[in-house]
């Protein structure tokens, strides 16, 4: 199986991503690292463990990471995810412990221990942990097989400001460091995730499963879509983060192209913007494979099949 580390700020859609990974034998989850984002770090670290307990997978370890962005105060998104970050199902106090090791050290040690080019980083939140690890141990950049991220937007614009997507906006300095690192990057922007809408017909097969994890997930999604349905008037909300995991399982569901991507870190108007050279007009070096389109029905079929195995 392909070795992955999931770096996350759960988040209902992060939960969907984690469940998709847990239900997929092609993936070996070496650890889950948490970061401050949708809600503060203490809460994302709690939520990651609650998700694992919903799935009876307490064998997967959780490492807490950065509690704030590199150079800015933390911006959170309770307006989207609710007070807990995981609103929807009834939430319990997690029983499984948080690991003592810091997420950044876990990431560095794992990349140095495993053979070079075998570990994939899946990032579902702000890139603070990854950028901090790169700063502390620049040698790890050359050891990462691939970094697949949910982040950014180009034709679609932003979701936290007109220009910026939330994960990049929260820690643009971290994102800039990651895009400069030379790590092979695959980017799942809003251009993809806004097509992955939780339409009733698509969620129906998840609803039919009826297991504890599936029920919890459906309750999360019912809560999560409220914000977007009200705001954008769409039938269903976008399911951002599981596209990262789906890409590892079935890359043929997605299409995009290699581009140069730069991150705006100074302009107050557009800070956190991902400037994607989709039309190749700058001649700047490609540093990411940027996805734009997705087979959304194929994605939901995969999600239901894998959650059904939990
Ligand atoms: C991203 O921001 C968070 O609110 C979601 O979990 C997702 O990672 C979407 O912009
Ligand atoms: Ca997230």
TrEMBL record:
InterPro entries cross-referenced by the UniProt entry: Inosine/uridine_hydrolase_dom, IUNH, Ribo_hydro-like
Question: Which Gene3D superfamilies does this UniProt record tie to the protein?
Answer: Ribonucleoside hydrolase-like
Specify the species. Answer: Shinella yambaruensis
Q: Which parts of the sequence belong to the Inosine/uridine-preferring nucleoside hydrolase domain?
A: 4-300
For this UniProt record, the keywords arranged alphabetically read as follows: Glycosidase, Hydrolase
The name under which this protein is listed is Nucleoside hydrolase
Concerning CDD domains, the annotation shows: nuc_hydro_IU_UC_XIUA
A GO molecular function annotation here is: hydrolase activity
**The UniProt record lists the keyword Hydrolase:** yes
Pfam families, alphabetized = IU_nuc_hydro
The protein's matches in SUPFAM superfamilies, at most eight in alphabetical order, are given as:
Nucleoside hydrolase (SSF53590)
Q: Give the source lineage, highest ranks first.
A: Bacteria, Pseudomonadati, Pseudomonadota, Alphaproteobacteria, Hyphomicrobiales
